[in-house]
Amino acid sequence: MIKIEYDGTNYNGWQIQQNGKSVQEEIIKALSKLSGKDIIVHGSGRTDAKVHARGQVASFHLESSIPIERLPMAMNTFLPMDISIKEAQEMPNDFHARYSAIGKRYTYHIYTGRYRSPLIKNYAYHVPRPLDLDKIQQGINLLIGTHDFRGFMSNGSSVENTVRTIHSINLEKRDDNLWLTFEGSGFLYNMVRIMVGTLVEVGISKKTLENINNALEKLDRKYAGHKAPPQGLYLDKVFYPLTH
Amino acid sequence: MIKIEYDGTNYNGWQIQQNGKSVQEEIIKALSKLSGKDIIVHGSGRTDAKVHARGQVASFHLESSIPIERLPMAMNTFLPMDISIKEAQEMPNDFHARYSAIGKRYTYHIYTGRYRSPLIKNYAYHVPRPLDLDKIQQGINLLIGTHDFRGFMSNGSSVENTVRTIHSINLEKRDDNLWLTFEGSGFLYNMVRIMVGTLVEVGISKKTLENINNALEKLDRKYAGHKAPPQGLYLDKVFYPLTH
Questions:
Q1: Using a CB-CB distance cutoff of 8 angstroms, which residues of chain B are in contact with residue A51?
Q2: With CB atoms 3.0 to 4.6 Å apart as the test, which of A21, A53, A168, B157 could cross-link to A235 if both were Cys?
Q3: In whole angstroms, what is the distance from residue B166 CA to residue B110 CA?
Q4: B86 touches chain A (CB under 8 A)
């Protein structure tokens, strides 16, 4: 398995596709150049266009004479500068980046300064007004735990079981910056971005805690808030059982 | 006066020039669109290509019906997304962004992780090896104070008085990131980047504290270290007397 950091700004997301650049395709191309073979690469899950990762995980079977500790450097030679392999580890044969995962951590960066901040224009969501952090914390408290999160999922997902457990949501503030860190058993399609959009609306009194309760109980997307934009989102870490 | 944040990645620096984009030119163009006039804009000082600013200051005389508190938003409408006016203030007539300045603060970001970090490739200097922070701190202690910093200046500057006072150099570490914050009465051409390069070389034992002493005493560039790359450097703040 490899751990990957990428700047998602210039990608259409993780997943390989017909049109547009994907991170997965770059990884496959690098492995092909390295090994001379076509390698099947499994990611821990998709990330949308413009979403970043500090700890995306991918798995593949590679027969190579390159020692595992040299693999990151060797792959980075063939990867564009906005993708970097940060770690490589040999795993048991049944390890699978997606199916072995037992949890994920995402961070979302919100910037609340009055005027736009060029240095983080591709790395944060600009909400140019003060947010009521007490209210946001109350909203967070409702979201933590095991719930059916169908009301916080975008259309277009075919997943059947929409029950997920959120272990923690941590709120950190420094000056005009706000970071929300989500840890959970897994996240539905766009679930983090919809939770963030909802919490932002709670923080400006456009939505109430009642709306969150309704979204959780009536399982209807219409009660939750907007989908926050992609560039504030970072896939930080994928968790696996200790045995892996 | 206005305070400006910019992402220097796609600019040839602050100063207007024949070839290549400059931040100063964009500011002049925005003011011209706003007022219909050619406005002379003075910056607090130059920044090199790819150097960033969180608090560059510029001054100009503008006759306009726009209230000063609306000026940032009005100017931002005409500026590219990698430049933003964060503040505007009316000043006494004799205020001059450069000549009234009594000090500056710069931050320099170093990343010491083993593998490159795509998310900060345009925002930090990658030094892929551990740095001896004790030694760097000893180097810092030698630099603080009033010295002739001619040995830490790039050629191509015509400045005569090369004595400057460094009030403080602060070292902050988080994980694989290191931030050096310099406050001083003023800085010579490339002085911060050469101090950073020198401190990095001290931190990997390529230079000694003796080298720093020599550079300070013999006023010769050859004793100092390399010039650290531009993308790690941020002009944070320009200081003015309270009367301004």
A1: none
A2: A53
A3: 20
A4: yes
Q: How many Cβ atoms from other residues are within 10 Å of residue B16's Cβ? A: 17
A vs B: CB pairs below 8 A: 58
Report how far residue A111's alpha carbon sits from residue A175's, in angstroms, rounded to the nearest whole number: 9
Residue A125: CB atoms within 10 Å: 21
Instruction: Count CB-CB contacts under 10 A for residue B186.
Output: 18
Summarize pLDDT for A35-81 with one digit per residue, the tens. 999 999 999 999 999 999 999 999 999 988 899 999 999 999 999 99
CB contact under 8 A, B115 and A52: no
Q: Who among A84, A121, A123 is closest to B117 (CB)? A: A84
ipTM, interface predicted TM-score of the complex = 0.94
Q: Answer yes or no: is pLDDT of B164 > 90.
A: yes
Q: Does A82 touch chain B (CB under 8 A)?
A: yes
Domains, chain B, with CATH or none: 2-88 (3.30.70.580), 103-239 (3.30.70.660)
Residue in A with minimal Cα distance to B3: A115
Kindly state the tokens that stand for A204.
């400006």
Catalytic residue among A7, A38, A48, A134: A48
* Confidence grade of residue B244 (pLDDT, cut at 50, 70, 90): low
Which residue from A140, A101, A108 is spatially nearest to A240, judged by alpha carbons? Answer: A101
Considering CB atoms only, which of A82, A113, A117 is closest to B118?
A82
| Angle subtended at Cα A231 by Cα B124 and Cα B11, rounded to the nearest 5 degrees | 45
> By the CB < 8 Å criterion, does B174 face chain A?
no
